[in-house]
């Protein structure tokens, strides 16, 4: 990633604008307008199992949780964009915000494991 990551992109006024990417940016800045360019690193997503048929709208499950390190080209501190339900209405989280989300997710996983174990007890008792 040490290569120059500066792109001359079209701007809305008909000119061009140089967008310089930080080393962690993996966005392909080749066609989008410079004013809309933002930086994004590798993403992580969790896709749920879908509805009772295994699918959601459009015939495919969608991402329930999504996160990526992001920043806008105007500068400022990078953040993690964290989205739920694939709605693109997520939050910009700093380290403390991510710590809070991770704590909540760990609690969720622990409770889901308890639920799984209880379900196993219930269904094994029915056999």
Indicate the topology:
Blueprint lengths: L5 E5 L5 E5 L18 E9 L15 E10 L2 E10 L6 E3 L1 H31 L2
Antiparallel strand pairs: 1-2, 3-4, 4-5, 5-6
Describe what you observe in this structure:
- The structure is a single chain.
- This protein starts with 5 loop residues before the first strand and ends with a helix.
- It is built from 1 helix and 6 strands; from the N terminus they run E-E-E-E-E-E-H.
- It has a 4-stranded antiparallel β-sheet.
- It has 127 residues and is an alpha+beta fold.
- A hairpin with a 5-residue loop joins strand 1 and strand 2 (16-20).
- The longest helix is centred in the last third of the chain and has 31 residues, at 95-125.
- The mean pLDDT is 79.
Rg, please? 20 Å
Judging from the principal axes of the Cα atoms, what is the shape? elongated
- Helix proportion range: 10-25%
Strand order across the largest sheet: 3-4-5-6
Mean pLDDT rating: 79
Structural class: alpha+beta
Low-confidence stretches: none
Distance between the termini: 57 Å
Order of helices and strands: EEEEEEH
* Share in β-strands: 25-35%
Summarize the main sheet: 4 strands, antiparallel
Key features of this structure:
single chain; 127 residues; alpha+beta; 4-stranded antiparallel sheet; two-stranded antiparallel sheet; elongated
Q: Care to give the gist of this entry?
A:
This protein is an alpha+beta fold.
